[in-house]
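Our preliminary data section would be incomplete without showing what the modeling component actually yields. Below, a chain of 335 amino acids is followed by its predicted structure, encoded as tokens that our downstream tools consume directly.
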Amino acid sequence: MAKKKRIGFIGCGQWGPNHIRTFFFNPGTQVVRICDTNPARLKAIQPLYPGVQSTRDWREITRAKDLDAVVVATPVSSHFEIASDALEHGKDVLCEKPLTLKTFEAEALTQLADRRKRILMVGHVFLFNQGILKLKELLDQKTVGRNYYFHAKRTNLGPVRRDANAVYDLASHDISIFNFLMGAEPTVLSAVGKCYLQKGVEDVSFVSLEYPGGVLAHVHVSWLDPLKVRQITVVGSEKMITWDDLSQTAAVGIYSKRVQADEKFYRDFGEFNLLVKDGEVLIPSIKHVEPLKQQADHFVECIVKRRRPVSDGRFAAGVVRTLETIEGLLDASRR
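Predicted structure:
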């Protein structure tokens, strides 16, 4: 029987406990230590996992000689310092998204992981969502024909964060999805946003992107919306596809809808017609598997077999590069 990978966790706030739970029940890992600066969080979590040690000093985890890997789920501003210390001390790292605030930091972490021959993976969890994987499969098969544009909407009433704006918090998901689907980074960007609740922290933003081949993408994110929405629409020359993460019965829908020129002969522009073709809607069967579990399984496989993760440092740096460009546009609009 293979020896279990011993893992330490830094950050037990909103998302950290989900990581702890997922790895605790993973047959290939052992949860050894947890860390948080808030003693109340440690007190609440530790009884759930008997035998797990706790600390308020993250260096006791990044520098522990008996750990194989570290999971970082702290505010994004601390990712670079913590992840770099873990890599320097020989740990494989799974870090929450976005990897860093600055592109040069993300690139530095990627280079450090390469030098130390460590696995660096970033928690772009939607790359392990079965609906998104089906969407990727359909696009790779050219199901929609030529890609025209993508539209994403990710809204809810809260949770409002102080350490990052809605773009870093929410749009990072959709940018990672679009980069994954396209296998590329956007080449043209524009963005607008407003800080209604906190000075200097956008709680709503509209982002426009253009990918190679003239594919447009639009992202609407907000903490100030009455409805929780997690949706993507893909429009192509032959078909259209929708993804709804909150749907229990139709996570992905394939629409046989398109617009085409009238194929009959016409003598002048006045006789030219564009015809709307409306057809059936196909709802493919998609197995519901927790994306976070799939992500944890992938991380374990990568650290055991020394394989490159889907969401490795280079992929994550591309997302940060886009986010940093958007932040520059928003910063200019604040002045």
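The chain has nine helices and 14 strands. The mean pLDDT is 94. Preliminary results of this kind motivate Aim 1 of the renewal.
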